[in-house]
Each structure stands twice: as C-alpha cells, then as structure tokens.
Amino acid sequence: MPTFRDPGDLLQGTLRILILKSLLLGPAHGYAIARWIEDTTGDVLRIEEGSLYPALRRLQDRGLVTSEWGLSENNRRARYYSITRAGRALLRAESSIWLEYSQAVTRVLRAEPSLA
Amino acid sequence: MSSDRAPRWRRYFGFVRPNISGDVEDELAFHLQSRIERNVALGLTPDEARREAIERFGDVDTLRSSLVRHDERQHATERRAEYVADFMQDLRFGWRALRRTPAFTIAAVLTLALGIGANTAIFSVLDAVVLQPLPYAQPDRLVTLGQGSSGEYLALRERLRTITDLAEWDPTTDPVDDGRDALRMTGVAVTPNLMPMLGAAPLLGRGFTPNDGVVGNNHVLLLSYATWRREFGGGLDVVGRTLTLDGLPYTIVGVMPPSFRYPNPAVQYWRPYAIDPQNGGLMWGVGGKQFVGRLAPNAMLEQARREVRTVWPSLRTANPIWDPGPEYRRDATVTPLKADVVGSSAPLLWMLFGATLLVLLIACVNVANLLLARATARERELAVRAALGGGRGRLLRQLVTEGLLLSVVGALAGVGLAVLTVRVLVVAVPTGLPRADEVTVNGPALIFALVMSVATGVVFSMVPAIRTTSAATRASGSMLGRRATATRSHARVSAWLVGGEIALAVTLVVGSLLLVRSFAALRAIAPGFDPSHVIAARISAPEATYAPGSERLAAFYADVLERMRAVPGVRSAALVNQLSLAAPVWAQAIRVQGQFEDVKHTLPMVDHFQTVTPGYFAAMGIPVLRGRSFTDDDRAGQPLVAVVSQSVAQRFWPRGDAIGHRIGYPFDSPWITIVGVVPDTKQDSLRDASTATMYMPWAQRTMMVGSELWLVARTTGDPADAGSNIRRIVHDIDRGVPVSDVRTMDAVVSGSVVGARFAAALVTVFALVALALGAVGIFGVMSYVVSERRQEMGLRMALGATQGRVVTLVVGRALRLAAIGTLAGLACAIVAARPLHRWLYGVSAMDPLTFAAVPIVFAVVALLASYIPARRATRVEPVAAMHDA
Hints:
Chain A is α+β, with helices and mostly antiparallel strands. Chain A is 52% helix and 16% strand. Chain A has one domain (4-110): Arc Repressor Mutant, subunit A.
C-alpha cells in the first residue's frame, strides 16, 4: 500500500483541515488527534506526529482552536484542544474548496486514456 | 495547574508565571507515552515500542524547544494585553469616579497644577540658564581669566601653555548716526580670534581676520542676527554697507548666526579691537578687558590655574608704567566660562527650585489628604470590590491609577501655568539673569513635568491607597464592622500628613521672611547720597566730533548744563563720568605725598574714582564735611585739586587733617591737593563695603576720560518731569548726540537691589501658597474630625457642654496640630536657612524675630482654619446625632 510521508509545506493546509475535522467530535489531546487521523485514513496519511503541535499552536494563535489542561482517560495530565466557532467556519470553507479540487483531479486522472 | 506551585508572595503581587517548559514537556511526554503503551499493547517489545513511537513523532528535542519559545512569547503578549486592558479599565473607572466628585477633583487638580507648574517654570529657567551647555564648540573647555589690560593680555597669550587660545573683549556702547536719529548701539570690541575660538562662523559675509586687529585696519564690524533683521531689514546686500560709529565709518563685513550672542544677547555688533603695542600707557594703563580662552587639549583646569597663578604675578616687572606691588595678581585664577556666565544665578535658581519642591511636596500632602478623606467615603465601595474578589494588589493599582490620572491632569494644567509664568519670570529679572532669552518650557522641562507628575501621583496616592485597601480587605468580611476604628486611624494618618505639611510651610515662610527682612535691610542702607528728586541720564558725545579734552567738548557740556539749570524746577545740575550704582566706577592706584611716593613700590588703591563737574555734590545731595567742593575756578592751568571721601581721609591722615595734603597718579605727574572731604558713597552696590572714593574736577582730568558723561540734576518737583527735558535739550544742541538711560536716582538705587527683591518676592509667593495650602489642610482635617465625631459632639452637648466648650475642643486640637507641625518646621528651617546665608543681609539665618513671628502666624492660621469646622460642631443636633448612632 502506498504511503505518503509528510513533505512539509504541501500538507500544511491539509494538516489544518485534518486537525479541525478531528475536533468536530469534541475536545481532544494531540495523541487522540493523531490516532483519529491514523484510524480514519487507515494509516495512509502518515503524518509526522510531532508536526501536529506547531500546527495546533498556529491554530490557537489564530483563534481557531482553544486549549485547556485536563485529565486523560487514564488519569494523566493532558492538554485538550477544542474547535472554536471561527474554526468551524474555516473548516467549512476549506473543506468545500478541497472537495472540489480533489474531485477535479480525480476526473482528470480517470479521463481517457487510462493509466492501466 | 502550574501557578498552584508558585509561592504565596509571588501570587500576591501578581507575578504568577506559568511553568511553560514543564507544560510543553508534559504535553509531549503524554503523547509519546500513550503511543508506546499502544505499541506494547499491539505486541511490540518495550524497546521497539519506544523506537517506533519516536520515529512516528519526529525530532522531539527541536520541537520541544521551538514550542517553549512560542509559548513564552505568547504568554508575554497576553500578559501585556491583560495589563493594558486592566489599565484602561482603571482609567475609565477612575475618570468616572473623579467626575462624580467635581469639587474634590478641581481642588486636587488646582493644587497639583500650582505645585507642578511652579516647579516646571523654575526648572525651565534652571535648565536653560544653568544646566544646558553654552552654545559654543566644546564649551566645557572654555575658561575666563577675569579682567586685565591689553598689555597683560598680550603677555599672557604669549606665555601661557595650558591655554591654547586667548581672546580679549571689552563691551562698548557707541553713538550711531544712521542719518535719522542719534542713538546708541551696544557692541563688543573683540580680538579677531574670539569667534574662531568659540567655534562660531558668520552666517553671511566673512569673519574677522588677524589683519582686522591691526591699528588702522579695524574699521570693520559684524552685525548680530537680530540687529541685521531689525535695523537692516535682513537684506543680503548689508555686507559692504557702512555704519557710522562714534563718528567713524565702519564697513559691515558679515552677519553672525542667531545662536551666536557672546557675551550676551544685547550685543548688536562686534568690532575688532586693535591693540597698539607702541602705546604702552594705553596698553598697560587701562584695565577691565575681559579675557576668555580655551584650555589646551590635554590641560586640566587645575593645571591652568597653577600656571596662571605663577605667570600672571610674574608680569609685575613687565609693566612699563608702574609697579603694581608684591600682591599683584596673587589671586589670579581660571574659571570655567559657564560658571562665569551663570555666576550667582545658579545658587539663586537652585534655591528657588528647592522652594518650589517644598511647595510641590505640600501640594502632594494636601492631595493625599483629600484622597484619604475621599477614600474613607468610598470604603464601602472598595469593601464590596474586595469581597467580589478584587485582590489587594488590584485595588491598589486602581487607586494609584486614579492618582496618576489626577496628577497627569494637574501636570497638564501646570505646564500651561508654567508657560505663562516663565515669560513673567524672565521679564521680572531685568538684568540679573544670564541666558534669559534661552528660557522656554521645552523638551527637558516637559520631561521633567511628566516625571514629576508620575512621581507625585504615585507618592500621594500610595499612602491613602495602602491604608484604604488594607482597611477594605479587612472590612470586606463584615461590611459595616470596624468602620469606627478605620476612620479613627484615617484621622490619625491625616493629622500626621497635615502636621508634615505645616512643617514644610513653616520652612518656606521662615525662608521668605528672612529674605524679605534682608531686602528691607538692604533698602534701608543709606547710599551716602540723597537719591530723592534726582534725575540722571547718559549723554554719549561721539569722540570723532567731540574729542576728549577738546574745547568743543567742554563747550558742548557747558551748554547742556546751562540749559538744564534754566529748566523750571531744576535746583542744580552736574556731570559725572561714571554714575554711582549704574555704571562700574573704576578703582585707582594713587601716590600719597610723604607716604607712598615711589612708583617702583606698591601703591595703595582707592576703591573708586569719579570725575565730576562743580555742583556734583549739591546735585547728588552729598554734604561736604570739611573744606570745599569744586568750583568753576578749578580748571585746566590752575592748581590740581581733589575731594576725597572719609575713608580715604582716615586711612592716610587719621588725625583728621587731610585737607592740604597731596596725592597723585601712579606715575610721575604733578601733585594734586586735597581741598575737601565728603562722606563715603555706595558705588558698586548697596552691599558694597569698599566705598573709599576720590573725586577730580572734570576740567582738570585729562587721563582716561572719554567724551561720554552722565548728567545728574536735583529738582524741586517730580524729577521725571525734568527728565523729559534732557533729551530735548541735547537734541536742540546737537542731533547727533544720543541720550540714554534716563532714570531717577531712586530707580537706579532700587534697580541695584533688584536681585534681592526678585528672590524675596518669589519665595514670598511660594510661602503664601504654602500657607494657604496649610490652612486648607487644617480645615480639611478638622472638618473631617468634626463630621466623624458628630455623635460624640452631640453627646457632649446633650450632657451640657456649652458651645464654647465644643469650639475650644476643636480649635484646641487644631492648635495642637499646628504647634507640633510648627516645631518640626522650625527645626527644618534652621537647617534650610543655612544655604540661604548668601542672600541674607543685616539678619542672621537664626533671626529671633522671624523665628518668633512664624509660630504666631501659624497659630492664627490654625485658629481661622479650624473655626468654621468648630462652629459646625456646635450646631450638631444632639438628638439627631444620637439617632444616627
């Protein structure tokens, strides 16, 4: 199965969408976000997990997520992130752009002549 | 939470700093740990689990440090924003609170405006006159050597090694004929090196060259910027034009920039001073030239002093005219130019600055007191806020912010006040203040005002704020409880403040009384002549038309005198070369027959030497004690005569037989016989102790007398009426002769003490302000005490105390307060009066009358200030007061 390693800037925008999307379920700590992406994509999008944290800081600085300390399922101190109203609005806008874009690329790739 | 771990004292002051790196560490560790646990659960060995987790995660160390950096930056930004938001909130809140109590606000702002305004005004003057460097190149290397003759100048310039460049200058006022009116212009004759030495270059045209200092080539001049603009219209064609000074044409070669005003802003032009090395008598015989120089690059001031102290006395043998004696120039010294320019103004301004600082302190105390009284009224509000979770630090900040708001508003009003008063101040010092034209309320003064307002704001709000917040936080548990205790302690603090305020005011009042008494003593000094009904004027006959010693000059002045005596109301009129207390009256070395005859030995000095026409003593109201005064027969060709003052007579002929003895000039010349003795007169100033004077008839004196003379006339009526005649008379005879400085002798005498009057007047104003503020303080604290103790007063009245008893109670308390404050103030005054010493005349710094009068003044003030509150106490309705309780 092909695996994408995070090439850096290319996936910045993607990472942002993934994080915001993961938070729609409710507040989550970094590890939970990583696990959610892993499970949802079937581990296809192998992001470097450490890069989640600078991305979260950036989102927080822009007011798209907030954070607070809490206790994890196994009673350890963990920082929980939640999406803000502005975060939701951004996710909505960006996901529609993304979907259009990926559909367009898909159509191109499916056009004749076939690769196979 | 991390702040839980911070010590209590740190949290108390709001210095809570979250443990940022710990948090980042926790967050990352949690992630890795969770991943490892999952990996282990999936069946990996612990080592593999860890390796896999880290591989998935990436570079932990780099990430950790970049996150810590980010979080710290973020935290700082948040703290700042929070602080600013709090500050703005406090400001809004404070503004509303101040607007709710307009009477308090206006009183406080006015008090502060007065304090800060006075300080800013005096500081502006102090800064411009004393603190700012002189506007010349490397001004701290410039020095003055005092005065001397041109012969001394040339020799010193030649020999001194620690002073690279030395210039000479001499003030001069020349009659100018511009074709319309005869007028006098004020200028300076300078050696051509003066401007380059000061680092000044002309704005227009050229500066002086060494060639301009050669006799015969020196008929060129440089205009001051102001004169160029005012008198010559500021046109570029001014260079090359001719100006007739003292009857001789001078070519204008340039214009100096506006910043160049050496030695003072009154100077209208500079002309080169040509020293004639051939004329030994003129060179060595005429002193009074100012020497200014520049220290050699590596020379220290002290080295220059040492050198001048040895070199200058050694010139004793170089003097070709007479032997100035073994004491000659032993006291020669070198003074930094700035100290010389600023002179006695520096201590005066520092003293005034000290006085205004006291006023400001008093203003602070008063405002603190007002705030305290108001804070008591606000105690409940603060208690509520404390109860609602406003920490003590937060409440403190709120109160200090309010104080700052008050003081900044006060400072704004104060700066406005300063801008107005600085103009008055500068005008009020007519002659005394050097660099007065440089005085403005400018950058440094504004910064000073800002610093002052912040400092005072913090000071006066801190005391009440600390008191109030501690009371408020204590009281927040039981909102009304302990109110009595709190207010009683407020009254105590308030009394302390007022006591301190009175002490400060006493210090100022003592100082002002000492100065006023000194001024009165100074004014009471008899000058030795009778200044009432005397008018004086300077008549500057141009030397080109009226050569010194010429028939024409004599005829001109004879005509002036004749016409003046014909004016109705003029009883006598005479001429003198240098008017007492108005122009510097020179000293003179003399020979005394039978005592000091040898010009090669030291000759005694007479403090002052005046050349007068017959009738001078009558016109000035100087009685002739023995012998006679001058007559018209004492003229050229007749035996030479002189009149001496009493101290001259007593010094050389203590047996009282001065008349008939003979004296002479300090070189081989005919003897002069003493024909009369008059009292000593004050010549330089009223404080002047050196009053030995010698008089010569103008008709017989040929040495060192110019064509300019002062006219003095005694009148029966108002001398000012006769004054208006002087200009007309001189103008009728010769339009080309300027008349200036027409003043009554009374004005001349009071003009000579204007410095003392200025200091006394200003300090008195400050003292009155202090007194008024002190009275307000007493009134405030007594009103407060009365209103807080209404119940007690009511009870006393109910139990049969008379109104008089209650009044006595209140007033007595105020008197006790005033007494303690006054005692402390007198102690302060003893210390503070010490530096005042130099302005005191005829009173000791411990003047018993002053020290006795001040307590009485303050007792009266306390009595008056507490009477109204006391009356109010008697009107307390006993029953109503009891009901309140």
